[in-house]
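Researcher: Next sequence.
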Amino acid sequence: MIKYCQNKRLRSAMSIVVALIMVITLLPISAIAEAIGSSGKYDVKIQWQPEREEIFLGETASVNFSAHLDQTFQGIKSADIEIYIDSKEAEALQDFKKESGIDTEKKLLSPEGAEIELINKEGSYYISFSLSESCPNISYTFTFLPSEDTKESFDIEITNSDVSVSNAVFSSEGDTGAEGLISDPIAFIGERIGMGVTVYAADGTESGEGGSQDGTEPGEGGSQEGTEPGEGGSQEGTESEEGGSQDGTEPGEGGSQEGTEPGEGGSQDG
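Model: Next structure:
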């Protein structure tokens, strides 16, 4: 009986261990990196903090960006960092704007003296910079102004999967764990609160000239239910335009009406 209980406990413990291993192996690398980073274990920390959470077309969005090289974790000494942004974000990024489009030859200079570039890799855009022992911190305020031609709403944000760290150089003095092994560099994005700014396009928001909108004032030439009609429009339950017909109220000229006084030339029953 005692041996059976011991075997049962052993099987239960092994089942729990197997379940934990399965959960860990199913987690994406970015999720593991974020979990590690949230506890302070990271090589590169990125912060992307917009000053506003939403904007409309014609408005600008300022994003306070910063990056930090943590040399105490695995003893990283330097690294190159690239942050992916999609084409809408790249086109809206005013810091790399020129008359003919996006300027990938321009270099920004951060307050710390580090260079920031926007590179194009086969149609994909990346904010690129380097961190080192001599310059472990970098910061910059990016300005975004979405195009007036934007048809769909989108978000200006980055996630762990958008950040890649390459050409990392490590020393042997970092906190490398019991085995003394240095893993791949870990990038960690700061807390997600306020990390994205939503850009609202014309669709689904206030309409422009010629647009239609329920429950609010329409654009010129637009239609609207439950409010005053445009020129030549019709409306039920209110006074009609000349020549129109209406049940239960006075008719227009030449109109007919049951149970009430007829209009000129009209007929009346009873």
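Model: Residues 2-26 form the longest helix (25 residues). Helices lie at 2-26, 29-38, 87-92.
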